[in-house]
Every structure is written in C-alpha cells, then in structure tokens.
Amino acid sequence: MRADARKNRDHLLAVAGTAITEQGVDVSLRDIARRADVGLATLLRHFPTREALLEALLRTSFDELTAKAGALETSSSPDDALVSWLRDCVAWTTEYRGVTVLMAAAIEDTESALHASCVTLRAAGARLLTRAQAAGTARSDIDGADLFALVAMLAWLGDQPSLAPRADHLFEVVASAILTSAGNRPCQDRTSPSGP
After folding, report:
1. Which of 114, 17, 120 lies closest to 63, judged by CA?
2. Of 61, 57, 60, residue with least CA distance to 27
3. Is residue 179 helix, strand or coil?
4. Terminus of the chain with fewer CB atoms < 10 Å: N or C?
5. Tens digits of per-residue pLDDT, 29-49?
6. Percentage of the chain lying above the pLDDT 70 cut
7. Are the beta carbons of 70 and 124 closer than 8 angstroms?
8. Residue 124 exposed, middle or buried by CB count within 10 Å (0-12, 13-18, 19+)
C-alpha cells in the first residue's frame, strides 16, 4: 500500500474509533466519512462494509487480548490468569459501545469479517478457562462459549448508565461465581456496595 493511501486509511480508522466510542457501532458510515472530511465513496473504497471497518479497527485489540491470554498462561496461576484476562476483555469491550452484539453475531456467521478474530479471541479465553478447570479452581459446568457470553453481559452492564456504577462490583460477583475456591476469589473489597 502506498504511503499516502496508508495515511488516509489510518486517518479513517482514527476518526471511526472516536465516532464509535462516542456513538456506538451503529454510527452512520456517512457520519464517519464527514468527520474524516472525505466522501462516502472514499470510505467505502477502503472499507466496503461496516464489518470490514470494524475488523480493521478492532484487529489490534483482538490480537493484543489473544496474546495476553497466551502470556497469562505461562506467567500467572490459572485462576488469576482467567480473571485478569476476563477483566481486560470486559474493559476493552466497553470502549466501543455495542461491539459485543456484533461479536456474538460474528461468532455464528462464518462470512462475517469479524468471525476469525472473534473465534480466536473466544478460543484464547476458553484455554484459560480449561486450564483453571484442570487445576480445580474454576467450575466445570461452563465452557468458552459461556465465558464469551459473560464478557458480553458484563460489557452490557457497563453500557447502561444506571448500572455502570455497579459494573465493577458485579464483575467481582461474576468472577467469584466462576471460581470454585473461596480463597481464590478476586474480590478485594468484600463489603457490600452502597445503595439499594
């Protein structure tokens, strides 16, 4: 790719990232093009579909989360590795409102531009879960698909203004429910949150 074309592509991705952070994944492609000060045809020449744009935007994050899972497998205890990766995954998905809905759909749609990245990410989490299960520190009645669904659920909580203040506490509740040993539970502050 020519240097000027790469510069234009990178600019479009930067603008798209900001727009999606502010308005969610359903932001209009026309609005992204307008913000980038290009025509819609230019945007579509680089990214022919919304999913192609999202895949390019999110690929680095998918790769980083997948690599982090691999690093955690060798550097942390099975339960710590699982909870740390789960926390990072949830934090990342809350950056782009609505991305978990697309990720869940992409897992089932082999034609989706996001399919391969989502499958790889889910497999990375599943390996951490299987490792914790083999060590006896994670419950055995869940699998990688369940873990992926829990990420989506926790990210959804963070997207809800009325629930966002409770998102960290609810993450701890869910993470503790995944683990089997009370001594290994991730809660640092076991006091109840204020409020109803």
Report:
1. 120
2. 57
3. strand
4. C
5. 999 999 999 999 999 999 998
6. 91
7. yes
8. buried
